[in-house]
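Quick note —
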Amino acid sequence: MEPETALELVRIGVTLLLLDVPQFSLIGIDTQIFKGIKMIPPGPHYVSYSSSNRDGSAFSPTVGFFIDTRPSKVIVCKWDQQNERLVKLSEEEDERYCQIVKGLEFDRQLGPYTLSQYGD
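Predicted structure written out below.
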């Protein structure tokens, strides 16, 4: 992918930033497994996750939720260790992380959405 194309997809695509997710956890969107993702096409998507034990040898049941997004949206969730689930941040904290994401400070820590599978 050309750098200009990738930058445009980062700019208009949705970003899902997941903070403090335990090591070995499985996270997915539209059946894609990842740890953080960018360039998600706008529209409806299903986000799923399953936490694991400390060594990654056993997983909890998969849990998920739907998101319906618009271009350039940033969705930030944080891992609630006590309840073993993703939770939303306070409005102030959410806005702070959204600005950081839009400034591309997390860019290297986010994997790109597999666009070739979009719409399959």
